[in-house]
Amino acid sequence: EEAIRSVVNRNAPEYKSSTAATNKSNSQIKVGDINSSGQWVDLQIKIVDLWDPTSDSIDQVGLAGDETGTIKFTKWSKSNLPTLEANGNYLLKNVVTDEWGGRFSIKLNRTTIIEPLDQDIEIGDGSTSIEGALVDIQSGSGLIKRCTVDSCTRVLQNGACAEHGEVDGKYDLRLKGVIDDGINVFEVILNEQTTEFLTGINLSDAETMATEAVDTGVVLTKMRNMLLGKYYKIQGSKFSRYLIANEAQLLSDPIDTDSILIQARSI
150 versus 122: which is more confidently predicted? Predict the structure, then answer.
């Protein structure tokens, strides 16, 4: 299902649904209001950063935003759209939303209309902060491999990407955890840098551990032994059900995670 959705979104200009092509029913929304994939929307945004495309199929890729937060955008080469300038302000009509791993993005397609704006749009960080106990570290954490085809970055499962099939991939380090603040539980994702900060394990260390054990799972096991049951302050941006952390701080000594989980289930 994910593979089919990705291919359809990537080739949206070729499909041209009546909703997308006519642009009659789109809502103009804020970046922070995007909450699902497959939405056709209009946005007023500022180009925050432009990145180097890693594929001929991509004309431009980067980060756009408004006062509610930022979002990745991709403009396909075959779309034949005007060039977006860094720090430029635009009204984008008829873009489609996409989502992967809790992160939303927008795709500019052949039906997209780009209109320059005179106003300077303020960029908000959309950040939030939580404090609580780390009660679970989920599978898909530790030493992982990501697809590198067309800036894909999807996590490989058994050496295969959901969209591009079997690929060599590139190693990465991450942590997918559950924080319990005593009232609510939050799913958090820590990138390589934040994971290294908490664990002291860098990517090279993780690869060495996996090579010596002939098992990438040893990295996840060590993370669980080091981190579970401790209190943390996590700051980051909310994407779908995940809090994508950009800062993490240890607050206290370990607690009994089993008792916390039992209490949570009884609420």
Answer: 122
Convert the pLDDT of each residue in 124-139 to its tens digit: 866 789 999 999 999 9
Instruction: Count the neighbouring beta carbons within 10 Å of the beta carbon of residue 22.
Output: 12
159 and 238 part of one domain = yes
Residue 146 and residue 59 share a domain: no
Q: How far apart are CA 176 and CA 186, in angstroms?
A: 11
- Structural domain that includes position 20: 2-116
Residue 99's closest CA among 39, 25, 56, 43? 39
Asked if residue 248 belongs to a domain, the reply is yes
d(CA 190, CA 187): 10
Hunting for tokens 């002939």 — which residue is that? 214
Decide: helix, strand or coil at residue 248. Answer: strand
Note the pLDDT tens digit of each residue in 56-78: 899 999 999 999 888 999 999 99
For residue 15, give both structure tokens.
């499909």
Indicate yes or no: pTM above 0.90: no
Q: How many CB atoms lie within 10 A of CB 212?
A: 9
Answer yes or no: do 134 and 182 share one domain.
yes
Q: Are 145 and 154 in contact (CB under 8 A)?
A: no
